[in-house]
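Justification of resources, computational component.

The compute hours requested in this renewal are based largely on the per-chain cost of generating structure records like the one below. Each record pairs the submitted sequence with a full structure-token output. That output is archived, and it is also reused by downstream analysis tasks.
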Amino acid sequence: MKSQMYQKIEESTCHVASRKMVSNFAMKDENHLKEMIQLAFDTKDELHVKAFWSLDLVCEKKLKQFVPYIEDFCSVLPKINDDSALRPVTKIAFFLVKSNHRKNGISLTQQQEHNLIEALIDRLIQDEKVAAKVYAMKALFVLGKKYDWVHEELKTIIEQDYSNHSAAYQAATRNLLKKLNK
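The structure output for this chain reads:
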């Protein structure tokens, strides 16, 4: 018999209202959240994509609930290959990095930061959709405030890649390049 959490994820759609309903259900109960995260991290289960759709909303609202799972997230991040999962996955990475950079935010270990940097650079150089690349760029920009070499690497990648992408990608990279060139 399928659990309530599994059923909710299975019945969910990519629409915001559906994803919010699932994320709210997960945030109300630690066991539901744990089950959602386990499903999201199980890349062999086709529902992992739908689980990530709602998990990014959980992380946006209650990132501290995700802290016990950061190590596993860093391990699974490079293994995510489904286009539909990449946007929420890179968005979660961005939330982690942004919070880590704040005074009262979460704390990533140096190893976790390096794992995120490596995985996000890989996302940038692979043929991914624009949204995933933009979140990867934003996260790497924040990480580059601590690790100078990341800004240099980021700048090189987006300058080389600039003309091969859509207007949306070019607009996002133009803004980032202005910040990098200051």
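Residues 83-101 form the longest helix (19 residues). The radius of gyration is 16 Å.
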